[in-house]
Amino acid sequence: MVWSRMSFIPAPEPDTGRPATVRAALASPRALRTEVLAGLVVALALIPEAISFSIIAGVDPRVGLFASFTMAVTIAFVGGRPAMISAATGAIALVIAPLVMQHGLDYLIATVLLAGVLQIVLSLIGVARLMRFIPRSVMVGFVNALAILIFLAQVPYMVDVPWVVYPMIGAGLLVMFGLPRLTTVVPAPLVAIVALTFLTVAAGIAVPDVGDEGELPSSLPQWLIPDVPFTLETLQIIAPYAVAMALVGLLESLMTAKLVDDITDTRSDKTREGWGQGVANIVTGLFGGMGGCAMIGQTMINVKASGARTRISTFLAGVFLLVLVVGFGDVVAMIPMAALVAVMIVVAVSTFDWHSVRPATLRRMPKSETAVMAITVAATVLTHNLAIGVGAGVVTAMVMFARRVAHFTQVVVVDHPDEDTCVYKVVGELFFASSNDLVYQFDYAGDPQNVIIDMSESHIWDASTVAALDAVETKYRAKGKNVDIQGLNESSLHRHTRLAGNLGTGH
């Protein structure tokens, strides 16, 4: 058994780099048991969160629960990242809440359907490839912010509650900390949930339970076509929300897929995951669900806490959810919230990258990298929106990178072959940030009649650099001096030849 330094739970045995398959899991009783029990744990943890997100969105709890069922089952077949959980999420709830308040459920369903179509289109045109532009510091900030949000989401269940809730949470944490040291046959979170539920029922302890979160459905979801006029006015109402929902859903799903890739040492198909999310949202909308995306906390329960690796756990999480709320709603309603809070606290602690905030790490890390991580965390926690946090982190990283690279360009005098000639050498990558002050690096008045600018150790990346070189030539010629730009590589020469003299004085 391999133990994680940052976790109260045993880390899964190292992966081989090849994704686990459904066929292999079905052929192994041990692996199949892991998948089945992981799906059950995720389903139990999904119920109160789906209800909470429904309340945030302003819809009936059944809308969130049905969305979680249809999202999980559909993505199990069409998604690109095995073992990842998709369901109704808080980020989506925040996006659609104003629409529900102003226009009602039917417009919400229409929005979910349109968002699904947009996610399919965006994925097929290659939006997943943009993930390569997300720096590691943003990814670390994303993970740390996620852990903080998971923990903060549990705080309301620990405020103004009977005192017995606190020892129950402690007992749950003790089970999840100690049981894996003895056995991993049954997931520790499942044992904690069952044990605490049995205790509260047998002892008649009055504590908040799942039933207090909202009414559970008693029937299966039904096919639903939104009752909205198919007009341009309807499109104008739902389009802004659909675009926001599509982008937020894609970003959270792709970031979660990358996180699971890192945990399992495997690669996933991000493009398939993107359009799979779109298909899942369309299916969800047609069954009256509120839509959703990858659910990071539940994914961590499935992959990290329970050790699941295949689509079986994802599929069963959705199936178990429906069976539990429809067939065993009375039993599920008895689960104390303290048990689920304990599970999510362990997930939060094990998700946080503790190494990233150690004093030794912070001393070694460049201040710009630490700033990017801190801004990502702060923006995410303040807005409770992972998409906004990641966007803020990426923009900060871009600005920091541009400022740093801008100082790498050097202009130096390297030769005076004769008294009438001066040779400058430009070294570095030239783009809008680094070439802005290029025009000020030459001695226009003091230089001799002929000036050679050697560009053999530089590269022109954009029109801003060509405009800067045009300005240099203009200043020399205004003083009656000749300028010869030499040594351009093929790409730079092509760009300079095409644009030089054609950008105008205002550019």
Automatic annotation (TrEMBL):
Which residues are listed as membrane-spanning?
36-57, 63-79, 107-131, 138-157, 163-179, 186-207, 237-257, 278-297, 317-350, 371-401
Membrane topology of this protein: Multi-pass membrane protein
Q: Where is the STAS domain?
A: 419-507
List locations, semicolon-separated: Membrane
Q: Which GO terms describe its cellular component?
A: membrane
Q: Tell me which InterPro entries the record gives.
A: Membrane-Transporter-like, SLC26A/SulP_dom, STAS_dom, STAS_dom_sf
Q: Which residues form a coiled coil?
A: none
Q: Which Pfam families match?
A: STAS, Sulfate_transp
Q: Keywords, A to Z?
A: Membrane, Transmembrane, Transmembrane helix
Q: What is this protein called?
A: STAS domain protein
**Organism of this sequence:** Aeromicrobium marinum DSM 15272
